[in-house]
Amino acid sequence: MKINSGLAYFLTIRYIRNVRKATKEGTKYYIEQHNLIPKPLGTTDLYVSELGFGSYRVNLTAIEHKDALIKSLKSGVNLIDTSPNYSDGDAERLIGNTLHELSESTKFGRENVVLVSKVGYVQGKTLTHALELKKNGRLYDDFVEIDQNLSHCIHPDFINEQLEDSLDRLQTSCIDVFLLHNPEYFKLLSKREKKSRKQTDKEYYERIKKAFMFLEEAVKDGRIQYYGISSNTFPVSKDDFMHTSLEKCITIANEISETNHFKVVQFPLNLIETGAVTDINQSNKQSTLDVAKNNCLGVLINRPFNALNKQSVFRLVELDIEENLSSLEVEDAIEEFKLIEVQLKEIVEEYLKSIDVSNDKIVFDLAQLVHSIWMSQPDVFYWKELLELFLIPRVEHQLSLFSFDNSHDRVQSMIERYLLTLNQTAKQINAYFTQQHTEQTDSIKRHINDNIDAWKDAFGLSHKSIRALRTTEGISSILVGMRKPEYVDDILKELNQKIRTNRIEDWQKMAEFQFVYD
Fold it and tell me: How many structural domains is the chain composed of?
């Protein structure tokens, strides 16, 4: 009998999506075989490595991302955290492909790895599909439209579709931990619409309860083992409009069933954002981590190196300083670039006039843009992003708008000089912002070395960041975006270091740190 291609694909996926899932014996054995410490994931039956592979910004096309994932797994890292909106589903596809390949070629099995995925974000192809549904009057209920590129939904119908899609991309029949992904977007929209806190909270937790009820059914039908919530607003002040109460979520789960499967939470905690430990935002003078620990929940920590500081992100990593420059030296370089750009404009205009061509689209304006960016004083990482994704493509586009004969040496020479000056100016700006970043990271390290004995022995800021979390009771695994094999090697060195007993005083001392700005 001949099978058509569509049916063949369906049968292949169903075959690959076999009934295997992470198991107690499989997870614990795998970690111990690599001489790492297996940590219980709360009261689930599963064990996880101290570090988990975070797949944000991981995609199918980057070979090093796959190599890093394989290296992590072969080193004993057995927890993978992902989401459908990470690279528009490609992160899940990479994970599914890699796990399938490893299971066929090595002793590694599905029972050894804990798969964590999420649901909530409506972006990319998922958003395109939702807009088609809206056009036809069939949009999901409880749909939250944030802006033209982002919506959010945790309605059971949406969760069901997303769960099926994630299972297919991950090539499995069961996701071990399935999390509602930042459900607080509903509160963000309510805040914009100036709705009352009381009414917003009432509807917010009703939506969460509805989602939990569906997820309990998903456990029964074997598509997930456990569920939970990943929220950036678990640790914020209880007086904050955006606050998500962990205690309330636990109460909701217990109302649904005394034997519920709400077992895992995820939230940020790092050297700058200490609130999950130090801020008392729950009853009985408890922090978010206290409540998670006292209720035996599995705790996954995200953003260990990306801290929100005054509405901007500060990267808790160290960079090599290329050269020390003053702001005046950088400003002189920008002024020189402006002059070169003016000269280029004049020469190009003369050339076009000589061949009787007019092109109003040629507008060399990079110098002014560079100056504007410089005046806004972004951090070095945002500067690099602007340079690579905006400035360089812009100058390439401008130069592509006209062509000239190679015999016009003056034009050729001026363009080369222009590009060389741009390159030199960009390097100087990069060096200056790197220097600024290093001054801040050095101040964090000094604060730790002067005040926190349990963390100071860790080498470098990234290792100190991991050490702080490793010494904190109640944390199951720390999610790290290890997208390069060499980065996996570096960060895993910390797992071989002995740690001291956790003390709340250490985090309280860290919370006293403040950046000093010029």
Answer: 2
Q: Are residues 96 and 130 in the same domain?
A: yes
Say if residue 466 is in the same domain as residue 433. no
The whole-angstrom separation of Cα 26 and Cα 48 is 11
pTM of the model: 0.89
Q: How far is CA 285 from CA 206, 271, 295, in A?
A: 26, 22, 15
Across 102-116, 159-173, 200-214, 490-504, least confident range: 490-504
Q: In one letter, which amino acid is 417?
A: R
Q: Are 28 and 47 in contact (CB under 8 A)?
A: yes
Running DSSP on this structure, what letter comes out for residue 315?
Answer: E
- Paired tokens of 412: 């050729």
Pairing of strands 477-480, 298-302: parallel
Burial of residue 331 (CB within 10 Å: 0-12, 13-18, 19+) is middle
Query: To the nearest whole number, what is the mean pLDDT of the chain?
Result: 92
Q: Are 481 and 306 in contact (CB under 8 A)?
A: no
Q: What is the pLDDT of residues 34-85, one digit of tens each?
A: 999 999 999 999 999 999 999 999 999 999 999 999 999 999 999 999 999 9
Q: Are residues 237 and 294 in the same domain?
A: yes
pLDDT, tens digit, for every residue of 319-373?
A: 988 788 999 999 999 999 999 999 998 888 888 787 776 666 667 889 999 999 9
* pLDDT band for position 500 (cuts 50, 70, 90): confident
**What would you report as the CA-atom Rg of the chain, rounded to the nearest whole angstrom?**
26
DSSP secondary-structure letter at 502? P
- The per-residue pLDDT for 354 is 79
DSSP H stretches of helix in 257-365: 275-278, 288-294, 327-354
Instruction: Note whether 420 and 466 are same-domain residues.
Output: no
For residue 307, is it within any domain? Answer: yes
- φ and ψ at residue 202, rounded to 5 degrees: -60, -50
Structure tokens at 415: 């363009």
The alpha carbon of 367 is separated from its chain's Cα centroid by a whole number of angstroms, namely: 32
**Residues 480, 429 within the same domain:** no
3-state secondary structure of 94: helix
CATH label of the domain that carries residue 205:
3.20.20.100
- Tell me: do 287 and 400 sit in the same domain: no
